[in-house]
Amino acid sequence: MSSGTDIPSDDENTRIGWTEAAADPAYRDAVLELLGALAYGELSAFERLAEDARDAPDLTAKAEIAAHAAAEFGHFAVLRGRLAELDADVTEAMRPFAAPLDEFHRRTAPSSWLESLVKAFVGDAIATDFYREIARRLDDDTRGLVLATLGDTGHAEFAADRICAAIEEDPRQAGRLALWGRRLMGEALSQAQRVVADHDALAAVLAGGAGTAEGLDLAELGRLFARITEAHARRMQRLGLQP
Amino acid sequence: MSSGTDIPSDDENTRIGWTEAAADPAYRDAVLELLGALAYGELSAFERLAEDARDAPDLTAKAEIAAHAAAEFGHFAVLRGRLAELDADVTEAMRPFAAPLDEFHRRTAPSSWLESLVKAFVGDAIATDFYREIARRLDDDTRGLVLATLGDTGHAEFAADRICAAIEEDPRQAGRLALWGRRLMGEALSQAQRVVADHDALAAVLAGGAGTAEGLDLAELGRLFARITEAHARRMQRLGLQP
């Protein structure tokens, strides 16, 4: 994952550490699921960026994108290490999330270099925002780890610069890319809903958080999606695209 | 690059450091060319392994191969760093080597997962052997750097294990893979000759070495190719393949 975000990541909800929180087996299961989902996301981001590096129009871009891919792999390695500490196997933890994420990528296969840049910029940011929202509900230790793996690899700025330059050169691109951005948002929400629907433990954390009875009511869920949608709109505008 | 090797890499030819050697502008140019060739080789190895990770038959293999790809990128970053120290741009240094290496990969595109493993095991080892031979003729500083970037990423052992298991399961694979190994060797030698023919400065280092009049005579050149060919044969035998 990469890309800046406008979702708050401060520690307003700082409450308890992993040991205390994991005394609840349901919470422990949810965190293993979350780490598995994130791990597959990073591995998948690595693969996609490696493909973008292969298709890059020049050697400078190729080397830069390859660096971002390697950084995503570094995030994956952190998650795999944490899963090993928790006696969980990364392959098993990732397995349930491979199909929905692969499906997202199949449904949003870029048809051009520019579309792949927008996908990297906008798509990863949506995922990052979503995970940041979940992170706020986690124990302190897991939250720190998750936020570290969501750190920007520098790809967002690289992609935004290239996209803005391309639109400046050929303003007719803007309409098509705006549609593309909306499609990415729609597919991302659709797959996120599928993941939450299929993973009760994960959904419970999203709804409740670590070791608290503090529930996520429907109004709060609405605000969550509103924040993600607004952050997406601001990013599209930053690219000069109609959200 | 990866893979173990039987080519001697000891410091029998240790003579001088970079500062002294680089007083000769032709030697300096040759090293910049060499670092450029290696850098593109690493970037290319990164890309190819990332593709292998994408096509891996299971999530465990995917994660492991992605790790090897990221390690190759680490080698690339070392070479880019050294080029920057020498006030050279990695993109410019790599440019002349992109075509022959891309051509090698086009001519040896694996048609199966097993062929891609053999290519990774055998092909990278040939390149590594070739660069180790060159390294023996370099100044101490450059040699140390080059040998470090030729370090095994763990991919050779991974690939060899999987290949041996596949042949054990279906011994009929052995004949086809043996042919594939010979084809890889032929294409590698052909592209290596092209690179040497097109790069006089590099050829001069291969022939002469850093800051010495010690020439590489034809008999020594013959022994060099014999060593590379023999090392290749031993690797094929290790896989249970007719060299």
UniProtKB/TrEMBL annotation, chains A, B:
Positions of the Ferritin-like domain: 26-209
Pfam families per the UniProt record, alphabetical: MiaE_2
Name of protein: tRNA 2-methylthio-N6-isopentenyl adenosine(37) hydroxylase MiaE-like protein
Biological source species: Mangrovactinospora gilvigrisea
